[in-house]
Write a structure and sequence with these properties.
The protein is α/β, with parallel strands linked by helices. Among the domains are: 174 residues, ANL, N-terminal domain (Rossmann fold, 3-Layer(aba) Sandwich); 99 residues, ANL, C-terminal domain (GMP Synthetase, Chain A, domain 3). It has 16 helices and 26 strands. The strands form four sheets. Strands 1, 2, 10, 11, 12, 13, 14, 15, 16, 17, 18, 19, 20 and 21 form a 14-stranded mixed beta sheet that branches. Strands 7-6-5-3-4-8-9 form a seven-stranded mixed beta sheet, with helices on both faces. α1 packs antiparallel against α2 and α10 packs across α11. The longest helix is centred in the first third of the chain and has 18 residues. The chain starts with 5 loop residues before the first helix and ends with a helix.
Length: 512
């Protein structure tokens, strides 16, 4: 099975109510199938097999057409983060060397500038309206009418090219093959719970790897609502209008919902299930969500771009058990799903027993084969077919996985390992703290010292003395932050993760 087969299969299985909804538009799955086929045929007239087709847009129905239509043409869809600067976009495009750049009109100015910076770019394709010197997206599709379908790609041909968020340096290209994406999708379909009458909502940026899950939602043949991007008011509107029953969410999004005036106990009446992921859930946010919406089921998962999706799952039943009997279980991201294998190893790649923390390694068909044009990173990332995630974790006796920290985010102070997530969880429980990130700063005596970067809740106060006293009661001395930085906003990647590399640079430059 290929990624590009999804629209055809979904259309075959779909009922009359199976539609895509976006703002005031609705499209039956047969329409998606037909337009994906036209896009593939149209692309075959203007680009060659194996070339990259870049996409710079917010969520919309056409994004799904590109998801499946570009790989159907034997080309590699390069997904671009709309929040990046021209310099950052140029770095990615110069690395990927795409032939075409498809954009929404609001990004046309950037696209035209990028065309002057990226020699490989031959054409800019524009949704909705195409000024002189560009090609209209609808004209591209019309050019595919009457053209024979392109030859089918192979399962091991690349379908999507995503770039890591760059939290620890320059973004690296992650080519995901048809096999990778289909395996990730099937693993999620096996592991995740669903109901026959679900109405799903998608609000993560579609350029994020979370978009892999849309294939499974289409194949299940139920209505799918797409939001242009997350905004709390628009979210409540969409849930109410379409009677949404299930969706995935990032912890930062959930925190915003809890603070919104419409987040009453009666809100979200149609919603049955919410899966969170992409970053750690602060314990206080989870507790507040349980209290606000006691009838709502929660689940979580663990994955990353290089894994073409998720590889573990902590179910709704696990969350209920945790709430009633073992709050510590909420720190787990669950058990490995059926189609992935996971190990926790020491520095010598020896398996560690339950309870001991080490690096998480993953193997399976959904694991990518290597970074784009980066042999050094590939040598460092694989051992005998096992991918080194760079995450530190541990298993419990029931083989549930707990993420302790990112390996690169671990702080070594005075020879002791300090896991930033543990300190963040403690600070996040302080009633005045809205968001927190813990990072290491160079220290001539201790090697690194622990720094807490804090965003306070509106109209709330706390100073270094108060936060230090809070941590003194809850953490070993070597884990306590020795310095605090108070900010109005924590820098985030598109997936909702705190951009810790930027915070470290800010400390290095001497910013307060």
């Amino acid at each position: 099975m290929l990624v590009s087969d999804i629209p055809e299969i979904a259309a075959h299985r779909a009922g009359a109510a199976s539609k895509l909804y976006f703002e005031d538009r609705a499209m039956h799955f047969t329409g998606l199938r037909d337009r994906c086929a036209l896009l593939a045929a149209g692309l075959s007239r203007v680009a060659a097999r194996g070339e990259r087709i870049a996409l710079l847009a917010q969520n919309r129905i056409e994004y799904l057409e590109c998801y499946y239509g570009v790989p159907a043409a034997g080309m590699l869809l390069t997904l671009l983060n709309t929040r990046l600067s021209i310099r950052e976009l140029a770095y990615i495009l110069q690395d990927a060397e795409p032939a075409l750049l498809i954009v929404e009109p609001q990004y046309l100015e950037q696209a035209l500038e990028l065309r002057t910076l990226v020699p490989s770019l031959r054409q800019v394709v524009v949704f909705d309206r195409a000024p002189d010197g560009t090609l209209g997206y609808e004209a591209l599709l019309e050019g595919g009418r009457g053209i024979a379908p392109p030859a089918r790609p192979g399962e091991d041909d690349p379908a999507w090219l995503l770039y890591t968020s760059g939290t620890t340096g320059n973004p690296k290209g992650v080519p995901l093959t048809h096999r990778n994406l289909v395996a990730g999708m099937l693993n999620t379909m096996c592991g995740f719970e669903h109901e026959a009458d679900d109405v799903s909502l998608f609000m993560f940026p579609a350029f994020h790897v979370a978009g892999y899950g849309l294939g499974g939602l289409l194949l299940r043949g139920r209505p799918l609502v797409i939001m242009r991007g997350f905004e709390a008011g628009a979210y409540f509107d969409a849930v109410e209008r379409h009677r949404v029953s299930t969706h995935a969410i990032a912890p930062t999004m959930l925190a915003m919902l809890l603070e919104h005036p419409r987040a009453s106990a009666q809100a979200l009446g149609s919603l049955r299930h919410m899966t969170y992921g992409s970053s750690a859930m602060p314990p206080d946010t989870m507790r507040r969500a349980f209290e606000r919406w006691p009838g709502l089921g929660f689940a979580t998962a663990y994955g990353m771009t290089e894994l073409a999706g998720n590889v573990t799952y902590l179910s709704r039943a696990d969350h209920v058990h945790a709430l009633e009997h073992d709050h510590g279980l909420l720190a787990s991201c669950g058990r490995e799903m059926p189609l992935a294998r996971i190990r926790v190893v020491d520095e010598a790649n020896r398996d560690l027993p339950a309870g001991e923390a080490g690096e998480i390694l993953v193997k399976g068909d959904q694991v990518f084969g290597g970074y784009w044009r980066n042999e050094q990173a590939n040598r460092e990332s694989f051992t005998d077919g096992w991918f080194h995630t760079g995450d530190v974790g541990r298993f419990d006796a029931q083989r549930r996985l707990y993420i302790v920290d990112r390996k690169k985010d671990m702080i070594i102070s005075g020879g002791e390992n300090v896991y930033s997530r543990e300190v963040e969880d403690v600070l996040g429980l302080h009633p005045s703290v809205a968001e927190v990130a813990v990072i290491g700063a160079p220290d001539p005596k201790w090697g690194e010292t622990v720094v807490g970067v804090i965003r306070l809740r509106e109209n709330m106060r706390a100073d270094e003395t108060e936060l230090d006293a809070w941590c003194r009661e809850r953490l070993a001395g070597y884990k306590r932050p020795r310095r605090y930085l108070f900010v109005d906003l924590l820098p985030k990647t598109a997936s909702g993760k705190v951009h810790k590399a930027g915070l470290r640079e800010r400390l290095k430059s001497g910013a307060n």
